[in-house]
Amino acid sequence: MIQKILKTPEHRFSNLKDYPFKPNYMDVGGVNMHYVDEGDKNNKVIFLFHGQPSWSYLYRHMIPQLVNEGYRVIAPDLIGFGKSDKPTHSRDHSYSAHVKWMSTFIEKLGIKHAAAFMQDWGGMIGLRVLANNPEWLDRLVVANTALAESKGFERWITPTMLKVIRSTSLNPTIESLEKKMNYANWAGYFSRSKKLEIGKIMQLLTTKNLSKDEMEAYDAPFPTPDYYAGPRKMPEIVVSDLDKAYEDWQKLKQWTNPVLTLFSDKDPFLADQGYDKLFQQNFPGAKGQPHITVTDASHFLQEDQSSELVSRILKWLNQTKF
Q: Where does the record place the AB hydrolase-1 domain (predicted)?
């Protein structure tokens, strides 16, 4: 049972730039998940899943464009992020817990045959939800994300190797992250930095210039270090729960609906690493689809190329008769 839960004071979200959306909340097992729900309730649904350390603010430009095209758009905040509740102990933020929370959210909504755009941890969590709820989606777009397919010896050695890599980073700062953006510095920063400068982190992983107001909006969910448990823990659990993640990946290979990949050309973690090809080669519904590499876009391509993403998604949904 979760011992302590914080809720970010609402005033932290007052007058956010380009984020006029009405808040919605759902109990997903003792914690409240916030979500944006815009558009006519009778329209076809597109889910937008974010990752770490962002929240649904990341989709502020895409939401109205998709709604204007006649879709209902649902964008949840992961537990520990955005306007959702924030368990304060790191042990509560396990990979399996996040999958369970999101699974509960999807099951309680009761929406089936929808579409989804998943990025970063939004994919690592959302894909596992889909594996066990295959009728939830009819269309899937994945961007700058991955799902572990480690097996045998790899499942034992990979977490150990990454733990060693993380421990070799000293005390990364924003400046050292800017000089060398890699897993060790990323994990080290989030685990050991006394103050997490989320707005500045987001700026490091975008190609466009974020305004002061936009960076403050990314800082808003975390007024003090007491709220940091979610973003602190995420880099540590990237290779946890590997057996179950592997099982879910095998289930996903049997999912035959259309899949589109939209990865970035300037993502310091995933660009040119073949993760998009992994989806293209393993998902039956990805074959023959108009996959592209989104240019002039870093890890958070929703900030860099929101209009292009919307255009590509809308065109593809129409082509596949969604």
A: 45-304
- pTM for this entry: 0.95
| Active-site residue identified among 34, 93, 291, 299 | 299
List % helix, strand, coil for the chain (3-state, nearest 5): 45, 15, 40
User: What are the boundaries of each domain within the chain?
Assistant: 5-150+242-319
C-alpha Rg value of the chain to the nearest Å = 18
Q: Round to whole Å and give the CA distance between 69 and 64.
A: 9
- Class of CATH domain 5-150+242-319: alpha beta
Catalytic residue among 267, 276, 291, 304: 267
Q: How many CB atoms lie within 10 A of CB 154?
A: 15
| pLDDT tens digits in sequence order for the chain, 322 residues long | 788 999 999 999 999 989 999 999 999 999 999 999 999 999 999 999 999 999 999 999 999 999 999 999 999 999 999 999 999 999 999 999 999 999 999 999 999 999 999 999 999 999 999 999 999 999 999 999 998 665 544 444 445 545 544 555 567 788 888 888 888 889 889 988 899 999 999 999 999 999 999 999 999 999 999 999 999 999 988 878 888 998 999 999 999 999 999 999 999 999 999 999 999 999 999 999 999 999 999 999 999 999 999 999 999 999 999 9
120 is catalytic: yes
State the catalytic residue, choosing from 92, 120, 138, 248.
120
Residue 119 contacts residue 49 (beta carbons within 8 Å): yes
